[in-house]
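Much of our argument rests on the idea that a fold can be written as discrete symbols. Part of our work consisted of pairing the sequence of a single chain with a tokenised description of its backbone. No coordinates are needed to read the tokens, only the vocabulary itself. The record that follows shows the chain in one-letter code together with its fold in token form.
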Amino acid sequence: MTRLAWCVAFIAMALVAMRQSALLAAKLAEKYSWPLIEQWHSCWDIEHCSVSWWGQAAIVLFLAGPAVAWASAGWKYSRQPTAGRFAWTMLSLLAGTALFYLGYYALIW
């Protein structure tokens, strides 16, 4: 039960980190000339465009990738919860999530 509670707590923190990272990346994308790869996709709107299978996989990765990573880190962390390990895990996950979204916006979106 404790492992499940840690996973839920990590997912909740992931949602906040994902939102803030995506907002930061979107603001930077407006300021700079992103994406760096010029128009290798035409449209990401699933309702109005025909999106290929790899485009749909990219969208799913964008929406769920960091949350899955955070949940698995929470599961692993719950085995030996210590304050130092918690700080290291949080810093690593926050940096990874921010870099993931910055890279996603800079290269793809």
Remarks:
- Residues 2-31 form the longest helix (30 residues).
- The radius of gyration is 16 Å.
- The chain is about 75% helix and 0% strand.
- The mean pLDDT is 84.
